[in-house]
């Protein structure tokens, strides 16, 4: 059977982590979002918001981490691997803030291809900000548009997951695999 590397994307606060956590609880192989890890690591070094202070460094660290996740997923014993955010997310966020980036960012998006992309739409009722999520809901909607444009630019057909309970969203995703 062919390896399925499936990415769950969406703007901030759309329920990605809840879905990933539930998939893990159901026994699926899942890789978590790494931007919180990068942000917390920088905060421990005294940089409050690395993405705001040095977006390119932050993005390079994310790119490196997401390429590593992709390579690890390729080598998993599991036939299905879910990943919370993919490599093109890095480019989408840089486009969102209007920053340019080196060609190797684009190359990484073109060289590392995912099987399916599920996108979670903005959902104000569940949106919450916290110490690592600095965007407000309006910004989250704009990021969502950048994610759609970026993934489509790299040839992906996005599957939108309806707003529903976590269990129903997971059933929807599993039904589409």
Key phrases:
8 helices; alpha/beta; 51% helix; five-stranded parallel sheet; 177 residues; Rossmann fold
Main beta sheet: 5 strands, parallel
> Helix proportion of residues, in percent?
40-55%
Strand content: 5-15%
Total domains: 1
Regions with little confidence, pLDDT below 50 for 5+ residues: none
The overall pLDDT, averaged over residues, is 91
Distance between the termini: 13 Å
- Determine the number of helices (DSSP H or I, runs of at least 4 residues): 8
SS content category: alpha/beta
Strand numbers in spatial order across the main sheet: 2-3-1-4-5
How many distinct beta strands?
5
Write a structural description.
The protein has one domain (4-175): P-loop containing nucleotide triphosphate hydrolases (Rossmann fold, 3-Layer(aba) Sandwich). It has a five-stranded parallel beta sheet, with helices on both faces. The mean pLDDT is 91. It has 177 residues and is of the alpha/beta class. It has helices at residues 16-25, 35-44, 50-53, 55-74, 87-97, 103-111, 137-153, 166-175, and strands at 4-10, 29-31, 80-84, 116-120, 158-160. The two termini are 13 Å apart. It contains eight helices and five strands, in the order E-H-E-H-H-H-E-H-H-E-H-E-H. This is ATPase. It comes from Flavobacterium laiguense. Residues 6-169 form the NadR/Ttd14 AAA domain.
């Amino acid at each position: 059977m062919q390896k399925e590397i499936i990415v769950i994307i969406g703007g901030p606060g759309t329920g990605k982590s809840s879905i990933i956590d539930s998939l893990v609880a159901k026994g699926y192989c899942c890789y978590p979002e790494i931007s919180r890890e990068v942000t917390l690591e920088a905060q421990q070094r005294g940089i409050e918001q690395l993405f705001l202070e040095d977006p390119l460094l932050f993005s390079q660290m994310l790119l490196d981490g997401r390429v590593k996740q992709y390579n690890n997923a390729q080598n998993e014993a599991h036939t299905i691997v879910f990943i919370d955010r993919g490599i093109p997310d890095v480019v989408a966020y840089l486009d969102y803030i209007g920053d340019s980036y080196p060609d190797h960012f684009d190359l990484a998006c073109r060289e590392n291809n995912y099987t399916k992309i599920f996108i979670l739409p903005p959902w104000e009722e569940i949106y919450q900000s916290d110490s690592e999520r600095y965007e407000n809901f309006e910004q989250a909607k704009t990021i969502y548009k950048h994610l759609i444009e970026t993934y489509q630019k790299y040839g992906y057909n996005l599957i939108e997951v309806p707003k529903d309970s976590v269990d129903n969203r997971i059933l929807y995703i599993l039904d589409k695999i």
